Amino acid sequence: MSVIHVDTAACRLRFDDIDIPCAIGKGGACPADEKREGDGCTPLGTWPIRGALLRPERVTLPWPLTLPWRWTRSGDGWSDGVDDPQYNRPVQLPHRFSAETLHRTDQAYDIVVVLGHNDAPPMPAAGSAIFFHCWVDARPTEGCVAIAKAEMIALLPRLTPASVMQIV
Question: How far apart are CA 94 and CA 78, in angstroms?
Fold first, then answer.
């Protein structure tokens, strides 16, 4: 099992020989059982990596991935509506409940690594769309972990279905 270590106090990500800056939630870090939708906190804990979502017109794959992945499409979204029966799941847009679009105008979701936070099963309002993604100008996120796109491209082929992210 490979472990991506995220030190929320230092805003550093370590993985094998990689040691780079990262961004976390604008609300800082919080215990996973205190995570709430919209609080901007990055949940502490060890989260399995479920797979990757890649934007085809912005990412090329010169190498094979062992991690499950798929290309995103313009109507792809992720439910963050706390009353949605599909809360914290991928959805098609437009969607009857609140949902994030995965095709953003910035580069944040060009590469999205889905973390297994609050997904087995999802508990309404306990936090959705906790991703590992590309940062935008190194700004804090809404609760995700983010790194520079070039570093994400270098790290992505090293991830496997057994990889986890440990956020401390």
Answer: 11
